[in-house]
Amino acid sequence: MKRIAIFISALLTSLVSFSQQESPDIIREYPGQIQFSFINSYQDFNISAGLQNSSSVAYRNTVVKTGFRIRWRKLGIAASFPVFQLHPEKGSPTKNLGLTFNMFPKNLNIRGTARVVEGFEQQNGGNLLFRNDVKLSHVEMSSTYVFNPEKFSLRAPFRFFEKQLQSAGSPMLLATASYKNLSGQDSLFQISDDVLSSVLRMRVLSFGAGAGYGFTLAKGNWYLTTVATGGVELGRYSFFKNIGENVARRWQVEPVIIGQVSAGYNSDRFFAGVVSFYRPGFGSVQNLDASFYRFRAALILGIRFQQPKLFDKWSR
């Protein structure tokens, strides 16, 4: 028994040591270069709720944005501007403002998002109506841990900070936390339920954890990266008639699935890619079905160039 324990310990130690070996021929970094990129993105928010075995009420907001990102060493700045909404009625006021930050240490992808969306297309059965009084406040944090960062890079396909030279993959862990607040001046859910028919505000606080795998297929300057993670999420749903008047509070454990895909061209000078993020919504809180669906796709075009000699003294 002791020999078996020693063998398993030695095997695990060798696997960890092998996964942490440096592989300079697999991932190429670009220190000291300035990176500039144009970003055109499409974002789709969808919130739906309803009683089981009956029609649901769905809210949707879609927007197309354009912007840019500049990065030098560990410093970066990005900005984006809405171009147009895809579904609002003519002349209806809408708002889609957001702040996002990303941290990409070698083995982590930490992402935080804060967003305020006002003006939603409401679908209740076969009826379609635009409601500019509906507002969504959304804050989300997620962290992805990569077990094999020396062979598989998240920074290459999703931020173009690096270049993956050979095909490789890695298992990963995922942790998420989010807060959503959906409110309106009139009833959000015009459904036949004594409690929910008069709800003006819904809040959801959730925490989740899971695991997944990422893989990059590299062929010269061309690449295809897929990342899939799945797990469970614990959410607390609170419903209010007025501010401070909580009419219902329900807990729910539900599955969480996140998919990310990036494909394109990444050379030492130029790069271009299509990057997408997809999170389908699942949810069933007792007799209520509630879900939050989110999709984002972006076209990124960029260039790298050597920093001016004036910056050399700050790069040492």
Short synopsis of the structure:
With 316 residues, the protein is mostly beta strands. Helices cover 9% and strands 65% of the residues.
Task: Supply database-style keywords.
about 325 residues, mainly beta, ten-stranded antiparallel beta barrel, globular, two-stranded antiparallel ribbon, single chain, Lipocalin
Architecture blueprint of SSEs:
Blueprint: H1 2-19, E1 27-29, E2 33-51, E3 56-72, E4 75-85, E5 95-103, E6 108-124, E7 127-146, H2 155-159, E8 162-164, E9 168-183, E10 201-219, E11 222-242, E12 245-266, E13 270-279, E14 288-306, H3 312-315
Antiparallel strand pairs: 1-8, 2-3, 2-14, 3-4, 3-6, 5-6, 6-7, 7-9, 9-10, 10-11, 11-12, 12-13, 13-14
Protein described:
With 316 residues, the chain is mainly beta. The protein has one domain (32-315): Lipocalin (Beta Barrel). Helices cover 9% and strands 65% of the residues. It has a ten-stranded antiparallel barrel with strand order 2-3-6-7-9-10-11-12-13-14. Strands 1-8 form a two-stranded antiparallel ribbon. The longest helix has 18 residues, at 2-19.
**Could you tell me the radius of gyration in angstroms?**
23 Å
Strand order of the largest sheet: 2-3-6-7-9-10-11-12-13-14
**Helix proportion range:** under 10%
CATH domain topology? Lipocalin
> What count of structural domains?
1
Specify the number of helices: 3
- The helix-and-strand class reads mainly beta
The outline comes out as globular
